[in-house]
C-alpha cells in the first residue's frame, strides 16, 4: 500500500491526502454507531482529480468510500474497520457554478452545502426547495446519493424530482457527462436515476443540475392541535381541497415530542397548554401577499372546524413553530439512545400504523416510549423507540423492535427507508422486504457498473 499512497500523494496537493489521526473525523458516523478506519482520506478539488484517484484505486484494487458532509444516519459514508479503504471526500469541490434564472436551474459541485445552494438560488430570486435539519452541513453529493427528502417533499418532491442532470465518475475512472438542464429528454435510458439513491455504490457524483422555482413571496403557517392522527389526515385532505398545491409542508408531531422538547429544550416557545395528543404543522406558500394567504388559511381552518389552531401572525412566530419541529432530533439526542426508524406508508394508513405498531411494541416492551413525528404529507414518519435504559445497551433489543416495526410497515405496503437510505444499518433487512427478483436486478446493476466491487463495499446490498 505504500506504493499506492505515494502515487496518490502525487495526484493531489499537500492538503489533498490525509492519513493517520487526521482521518479520524471521516471514520465515525454522525450517530456514532459506526467507527471505521481508513487507509487515507483523499480530498480532490476537481472532477479530473476524482477520476485520477478512482483510476488509481481500480489499478490497485483499493475500495472507495465516497463521503460528502458525513451526515448519513445509516452509516453509508463510513469505512469498515479493516483500514484498507480510501475515503473519498468531496468537501473541497464545493462551488455553486451557475444559476440560470431563465431555465430555472442551478449547477453545483457535489461538495456544495445545501444552505449554500439555497442562498445562491435566493440571491437570484429563485427557490431551491430541498430543506432538512442538516442544511448547514449536508453536501449535495450525499443528498443525491441518498435521494434525500425533507419538509417540502409534499409540494416539490425528493432529490430525484429536483435533479435534471448529473456528472458522475464511474468505478473505472471514466467521466459520464450528463449535465443536461432539460425537462424533456427521451433519448434512451434515464441514467441519472441509477445514481440518485445508490449511496455511492455505482459511482461518484461530482456535479449536478438542479431544478429551481420562483421564490414565493407569501407564506402562511399554522400549528393545529388534534386528538388523533386520523384528524391530521382529514385536515390535510381538507386544506389541499381548498388551496391545492400551495400546501408546501405538512408535519405531524406527537404529544411525547412536545414533552421531550419541554424537558430538553426549555428555552423554545411552547404554545400549547395543556399539550395536545397530536399536532399538525402546516405551511402554505405562493406568490402575492402573506397577509392575504394567512387570511385564506384562517378561513379554511374555521371551515374545517379546527377549534385549537394557532395561526402565525408574523415570520418570527412562524419560525418559532418550525423551531419546535426542527429541534425534535436534538431533544432526542439529549435524552439518550433510541432505536430509530425512517419509514413510509400510504398517507391514509398512517393512523392504523401508529395504533397497531404502538400496541405491539407496548405488548413486547412495557417500558417502550415512542417518539413519532415527521412528514405526514408524503407518508414519511420518523418512528423512534426509547426504553428505560437510554444507553447503547438498548441496541441488544433492536432486532426485535425492528421486526415489529417493519412487519407493521410491510402490512401497510410501506417502505423501511423513506429518505435516509440503507447504508450499513438496514442492508440485512432488504432480503426480507424486497423480493428476490428486485434484489437480483440490483445486484446485476451493481456488477455491471462495478465489476471489481470497489465502490462503497458493504453498503446497501449484502455481498
Automatic annotation (TrEMBL):
<feature type="domain" description="FAD-binding PCMH-type">
    <location>
        <begin position="34"/>
        <end position="215"/>
    </location>
</feature>
<dbReference type="InterPro" id="IPR051264">
    <property type="entry name" value="FAD-oxidored/transferase_4"/>
</dbReference>
<comment type="similarity">
    <text>Belongs to the FAD-binding oxidoreductase/transferase type 4 family.</text>
</comment>
<dbReference type="Pfam" id="PF01565">
    <property type="entry name" value="FAD_binding_4"/>
</dbReference>
<dbReference type="Pfam" id="PF02913">
    <property type="entry name" value="FAD-oxidase_C"/>
</dbReference>
<protein>
    <submittedName>
        <fullName>Hydroxyacid dehydrogenase</fullName>
    </submittedName>
</protein>
<dbReference type="InterPro" id="IPR016167">
    <property type="entry name" value="FAD-bd_PCMH_sub1"/>
</dbReference>
<dbReference type="GO" id="GO:0071949">
    <property type="term" value="F:FAD binding"/>
</dbReference>
<dbReference type="GO" id="GO:0003824">
    <property type="term" value="F:catalytic activity"/>
</dbReference>
<keyword id="KW-0285">Flavoprotein</keyword>
<dbReference type="GO" id="GO:0022904">
    <property type="term" value="P:respiratory electron transport chain"/>
</dbReference>
<keyword id="KW-0274">FAD</keyword>
<dbReference type="InterPro" id="IPR006094">
    <property type="entry name" value="Oxid_FAD_bind_N"/>
</dbReference>
<dbReference type="InterPro" id="IPR016169">
    <property type="entry name" value="FAD-bd_PCMH_sub2"/>
</dbReference>
<dbReference type="InterPro" id="IPR016164">
    <property type="entry name" value="FAD-linked_Oxase-like_C"/>
</dbReference>
<dbReference type="InterPro" id="IPR016171">
    <property type="entry name" value="Vanillyl_alc_oxidase_C-sub2"/>
</dbReference>
<dbReference type="InterPro" id="IPR004113">
    <property type="entry name" value="FAD-bd_oxidored_4_C"/>
</dbReference>
<dbReference type="InterPro" id="IPR036318">
    <property type="entry name" value="FAD-bd_PCMH-like_sf"/>
</dbReference>
<dbReference type="InterPro" id="IPR016166">
    <property type="entry name" value="FAD-bd_PCMH"/>
</dbReference>
